[in-house]
Design brief:
mainly alpha; two-stranded antiparallel sheet; 6 helices; 2 strands; single chain
């Protein structure tokens, strides 16, 4: 289920955070469902348990998961909304990118076609 790109510039813990958030958004993991333990994910991915713990701590800090001592980590109620709010903050970056593309001569229709393609892919996943 989880995959780590060892060649990525993105740190492993960030890759894990992003994957957990994506799995929640597409409905692979649901509210109050347990996510894999630090130990099991560490073994599965051959990643240091401290790295997994760092990702889980970040998810906890963001309010995406909650921990139950002795039981593990679970998807928090409202996680989808919290993830959506964080992603909404990226709209400013998107506007800046679209402005750069427009300056580079990319037509509005081409940008819109790319946005529509992204939504088609999203619908295909759901």
């Amino acid at each position: 289920m989880f995959q780590i790109d060892v060649m990525s510039r993105k740190p492993v813990y960030e890759q894990l955070v992003n994957q957990v958030e994506r799995f929640i958004l597409i409905g692979v993991i649901h509210q109050d469902e347990q996510i894999p333990s630090v130990r099991s994910l560490s073994v599965e991915l051959a990643v240091n348990p401290n790295t997994i713990q760092k990702a889980y701590s970040e998810l906890d800090r963001r309010g995406i998961t909650y921990s139950v001592p002795g039981k593990g980590s679970f998807v928090a109620p409202g996680a989808v909304q919290r993830i959506g709010e964080r992603r909404r903050s990226k709209l400013k970056e998107f506007i800046a990118l679209v402005s750069e593309l427009a300056l580079a001569g990319i037509k509005k229709e081409e940008i819109i076609a790319c946005v529509e393609e992204a939504y088609r892919e999203k619908e295909a996943v759901q």
